[in-house]
Inverse folding.
């Protein structure tokens, strides 16, 4: 085959399998001047990237559900309604997906919140808890029903799994989630009480592979850590990264720590997958359909172990959980997924930086979130600067252009399994041109007062 023919064929297969992900209904407002903003948005992205065969709509925003939900009486998000949008695409031949990001800060249920290893609660719920799983399932059931009533044919679901278990660092000490009553009870099946206590110490097993980054703005982690890494392998990685010298522990104790790290990550993987499986089974059972017919996709980061997702990518192939495909960013150095059906998510760190922006934007204008997250202490001008900075991070994480997709396709085609399991691409509907609309937030006088009074 000629080189030109090879590229033409590659482009044809890129075009045949692209999904447009609307991460937040706020992005449609960037086309608010058009009489049909949704169509204008899709047209704009198709002009840059070619045709899309699917489109993803979020069932929740960070401030509430995107449609009126009567069963659980959850708050409704500000802005556009999912129902109106679904009615607009009902006769469209594109596959419709309903996505859900399960941080559910709007649930406002202290008992359901994540608890980190030092005992602090976070403004996000724990997906291991049955009550939370039921609420997530209810939102999905109602969203699928809304889609069905709007005339959408067989919508699929997408679970955003990039941040089920957020983590933090306090003066060099790693603090991971979650250690709520449900998680602790589950982990007790894998770790003794004394072993569990090790994770609360200032030097804990996570210190072998996680460290505060040089800028002091977050956590860096080693990408080599996977489900097949041995305790010795972990110590080798930690040695190479220079993490061991700060730990000041005997070789025997370091070996124990490495073993505990493996046990913890495997237990967390099992808990995460069981929790997702429960949600998917609840939805299928209530709607009286097969789990497979939901075509559930899981959005993940392209690391062998997803630290804030809580699962090993390579183990997804062997677990029964109802996840039909994984959407994962094309990180370099990560083995391609040979055994798992997957799509390439064309943003660096997948949805992570994008979600971080929309979550920050929503909590900065919400009185309750602001008081709970410590945002209250910032002056309005500082908050607006932070929103703009997070927007820049999110927008620049998006990998633009068909050439980038062709590069992925070329790498995937080198592995027979990966080639067979590669289902296509996902583009995020986010661009730098949306800055003016998305970084304008409505800071009410009450919120302004909050910034001043502290
Ligand atoms: Zn928990």
């Amino acid at each position: 085959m000629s080189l030109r023919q090879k590229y033409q064929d590659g482009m044809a297969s890129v075009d045949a399998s692209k999904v447009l992900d609307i991460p937040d209904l706020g992005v449609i407002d960037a086309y608010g001047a058009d009489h049909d903003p949704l169509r204008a948005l899709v047209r704009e992205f198709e002009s840059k990237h070619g045709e899309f065969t699917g489109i993803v709509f979020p069932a929740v925003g960070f401030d509430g559900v995107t449609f009126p939900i009567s069963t659980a009486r959850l708050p409704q998000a500000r802005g556009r309604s999912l129902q109106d949008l679904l009615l607009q695409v009902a006769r469209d031949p594109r596959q419709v997906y309903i996505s859900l990001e399960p941080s559910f800060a709007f649930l406002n249920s202290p008992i359901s919140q994540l608890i980190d290893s030092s005992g602090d609660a976070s403004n996000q719920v724990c997906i291991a808890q049955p009550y939370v799983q039921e609420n997530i399932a209810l939102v999905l059931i109602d969203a699928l029903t809304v889609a069905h009533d709007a005339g959408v044919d067989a919508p699929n679901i997408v679970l955003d799994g990039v941040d089920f278990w957020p983590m933090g660092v306090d003066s060099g000490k790693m603090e991971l989630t979650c250690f709520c009553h449900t998680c602790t009870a589950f982990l007790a099946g894998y770790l003794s009480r004394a072993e569990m206590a090790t994770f609360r110490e200032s030097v804990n097993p996570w210190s072998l592979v996680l460290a505060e980054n040089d800028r002091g703005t977050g956590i860096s982690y080693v990408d080599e850590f996977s489900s097949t890494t041995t305790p010795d392998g972990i110590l080798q990685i930690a040695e190479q990264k220079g993490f061991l010298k700060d730990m000041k522990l005997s070789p025997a104790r370091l070996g124990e720590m490495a073993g505990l790290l493996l046990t913890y990550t495997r237990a967390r993987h099992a808990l995460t997958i069981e929790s997702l499986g429960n949600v998917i089974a609840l939805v299928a059972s209530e709607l009286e359909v097969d789990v497979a017919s939901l075509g559930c996709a899981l959005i993940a980061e392209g690391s062998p172990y997803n630290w804030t997702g809580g699962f090993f990518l390579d183990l997804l192939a062997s677990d029964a959980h109802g996840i039909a495909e994984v959407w994962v960013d094309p990180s370099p150095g990560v083995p391609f997924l040979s055994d798992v059906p997957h799509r390439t998510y064309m943003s660096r760190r997948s949805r992570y930086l994008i979600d971080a922006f929309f979550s920050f934007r929503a909590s900065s204008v919400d009185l309750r979130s602001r008081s709970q997250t410590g945002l209250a202490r910032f002056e309005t001008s500082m908050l607006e600067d932070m929103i703009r900075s997070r927007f820049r991070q999110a927008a620049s994480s998006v990998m633009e252009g068909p050439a980038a997709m062709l590069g992925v396709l070329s790498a995937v085609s080198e592995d027979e399994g990966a080639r067979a399991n590669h289902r296509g691409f996902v583009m995020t509907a986010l661009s730098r041109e949306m800055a003016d609309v998305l970084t304008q937030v409505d800071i009410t006088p009450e919120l302004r007062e909050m910034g001043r009074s502290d």
Q: What stands out?
A: The mean pLDDT is 90. The chain has 16 helices and 18 strands. The CA atoms of residues 224 and 304 lie 7 Å apart.
